[in-house]
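WARN retry 2 of 3 for item q-0093 after timeout on previous attempt; input resubmitted unchanged.
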Amino acid sequence: MTTRHPAHASADLAVTILGAGHIGFAIALLLKQAGGYRLTVADRDPSRLAEAAALGVHTQLLSDEPSLQAAVQGRFAVLNALPYHRAVAVATMCVQAGVHYFDLTEDVQSTHAIRRLAVEGRAGGAAQSVLMPQCGLAPGFIGIVGQDLASRFDTLRMRVGALPRYPQGALRYNLTWNTEGLINEYCNPCEAIVDGVRTPVPALEGLETFALDGVEYEAFNTSGGLGTLTETLAGKARQVDYQSIRYPGHCAILKLLLNDLRLRDRRDLLKDLLETAIPTTDQDVIVVFASASGLRGGRLVQHSYSARIVGAPVAGHTLSAIQLTTAAGICTALDLVAQGRLPQKGFVGQEAVPLADFLDNRFGVAYAGGAVAVVA
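OK item q-0093 returned
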C-alpha cells in the first residue's frame, strides 16, 4: 500500500493540540513520529504537559483565556482534544484567527453550532478556514465508510463498539474513553433515516444481537455516531441507522440505571458511579461493522465492511485501540487538508473524505491493519 505524506511536509506546519490526556498524547505521538508538523501541546495540567514534552514537542500551560488565545493564534491548525463542552468556544477562536479547526466531539448540538460558525462566525462573513469536527471513530471514520457504502445502495446499517478484550462483571464493559461522552451517547436523542426522512429515535432502543467472527454481540441506538451523515443522505438513502456494539446484557442494565433509577436526570452522579465502579483498561478492541443493501439486477444484494482493531506500539509507547483509532482519524483529516485534498475553508463533514484516500493515508492505514506514522 502506498503511504502518502503532506505535499509540503518540509514546511513543518505549526499545529496546536489542545488537551494532553490519553487522546491528546496519542495525537502528539503520531504527528511527532510522522514529521511535517511543528507541534505545541497545550493543557492546564503540568504533569500531562511533562509527558508530552518528553516526546520532544513544545508545550504550553493553559491558565486562562488569554493563554488559550495565544495557543491558537498564528497556527496552521488546532486539533481540539478538550472536553466536548469547549468545542464551540475553541472553534470560534479559530474562525476569528483564520486557523483550521479539527475536533473529536460526539455532541450533536456542538456540531450544529460549529456549522453555523462556518457561515456567520466571522466579522466579514463566512469562515476562511476549515471547520472539521467529529474526526474520531464514531462520529468520524464510520461516516466515511457509510458514505462509501451509500454510494452503492439505499439501505445502510452501521455498528461500532469500543470494547474490553477481556470483559468482566455484569456490564461486561470497561471505560476506554471519556465518561461524559459515553453518557451523552446513552442519554441524548439519536437520529436515523426512515423512508428517506431524517427521524429522531430513542437511545437504548432498537436492540439486536449478532455474531461477528464467532463472537456474540448486541447493538442498540446511541447518540452522535452518525455525525452529519443523516443530513447528507436525507432524501437519497431509504434507511440509515447507527448503533453501538456491546457484549450481551449491557443494554438491559443501562435501562435499569437510566430509566428505572432515573440516573439520566443525574448525570454527575452517574459519572461518579461509573468511574468508581468500572475499571479502565488499555486492553481494548474496536469493532466496526457496516452493511448496505439494495436491488441490483432485480436481486437483493448486500455489501459489508468490517474491521477489528487492537492497540499497537508506536515509538516505544503502547497505544490502546481507542487511542490509536481516534488519533489516527483526526491526524488523517489534518493531513488531507494540509495536502489540499479536502476543501480549504468552511464546514467539512467526514463524509467529504473518500474512503480510499483515508485508508491510503499514513495515519488512516491503522484502520486497514497497517503500521501508522512512517517517518516522512
